[in-house]
Amino acid sequence: MTNSLYAVYGASGCGRGIMPLAKAQLREQGIAAERLVFIDDNPAASLINGHRVLTYDEFLACEASARYAILAIANGNVRETLARRCAADGVNTWSVRAANVITMDDVTVGEGAALSPFVTLTSNIRIGKHFHANLYSYVEHDCIIGDFVTFAPGVKCNGNIHIHDHAYIGADAVIKQGTPDQPLIIGHGAVVGMGAVVTRSVPPGATVVGNPATPIVRK
Known about the structure:
- One of its GO terms (molecular function) is transferase activity.
- This protein is α/β, with parallel strands linked by helices.
- 16% of the residues lie in helices and 30% in strands.
- It folds into 2 domains: 5-94, Rossmann fold (3-Layer(aba) Sandwich), CATH 3.40.50.20; 97-209, UDP N-Acetylglucosamine Acyltransferase, domain 1.
- It has helices spanning 13-28, 56-61, 76-88; strands at residues 5-9, 36-39, 47-48, 51-54, 67-71, 92-93, 96-97, 102-103, 107-109, 114-115, 120-121, 125-127, 132-133, 138-139, 144-145, 150-151, 156-157, 161-163, 168-169, 174-175, 184-186, 191-192, 197-198, 207-209, 214-215.
- α3 links the parallel β5 and β6 (92-93).
- The longest helix is centred in the N-terminal third of the chain and has 16 residues, at 13-28.
- The N and C termini lie far apart (55 Å).
């Protein structure tokens, strides 16, 4: 519908990285750039990179036959809160992917995904809702990824890995391949630090750093 309104929710660095992908995707569908805006709860400007910046209430007040938003917030807990807010207000979930994303065989990706340039998803992969895969990250075969998971740039997720909801994987982290009978597990809400090399499963809520990755002990 040409009168639909589309939004990137979040005008920080994450949102500004997703916006050009969203614009290109809509252009392929014949939808004008004017129908694409930023939403920001605390806007610093009324125009960013040529796109209007609206508060959430202003977005809801705009004339539109339907509304769509992708949640460009790195924090998975915040993404979940905003997803519930949008659903309650009838704002549709929207997925955005770069034109050069590679998806191979038997890959399922849930609603609301943001797939940046040079992302690769190989084969036999299940990914949940509102997944963020930043530049040059990949997911290898036989992986299961939960909801609201975030990959920073350059994440290497090798085969037979299970990543539970709300996990955050830092830039250039490497996760060692598991086995079909004993997948390597990244627990719910776990954080893998930048450049970490993960060689064993990470408990829920833990933060691991280093090579090999070890938990941070909080005093």
